Amino acid sequence: MDKPNTPGPAASSRLSTPLEGTPATAWDANAPITAPLCLHQTTVRPEWVDYNGHMSESCYLLVFGDSSDAFFRFIGIDESYRDQGGHSFYTVETHIHNIREISLGQPLRLSLQLLDVDAKRMHIFHAMHHATTGELLATCEQMLVHVQMAQGRSAPMPADLQQRLAAIHAAHAPLGRPPQAGASIGIRRKP
Predict the structure, then answer these.
(1) Tens of pLDDT along 70-103?
(2) Separation of alpha carbons 11 and 133, rounded Å
């Protein structure tokens, strides 16, 4: 076990995703694209439950991140994309809406909608549902930027990736904008 304040976690104790090491799916341009995409399911683990008896707020983001990782692999991005090309997606903004409490052992189904895309950015929207009842539990809206890692700055996506994302965006356009998307945070006061 690492000692507190020890720089750099040991490889066996660092944070990873359930899909780490799993190769990306081969893209089939003729395959139908579901709207929204449902690429990740999980169950609330004991280590995600806090002293209030429900999933801790940081673990919502962890699960949404795992859903993003499933999406990356769906569009052709895995470790080889990063290692061979030196590119990745970095999250630059996240907004989470916690709608219902989630308890230990509850099954979760995640969906993802691509709200917008350009040559360097993706605007995605996750929804977390109870996998049995279908009840909406939480949402997460994110802006991601494609980066050239060595330079530490944004870079255009390769043309084939842009084409894949354009196809997904077109398939998701009829869904419309979720009500939580673009919401601002603040204390609402009566005039």
Answers:
(1) 999 999 999 999 999 899 999 999 999 999 999 9
(2) 38
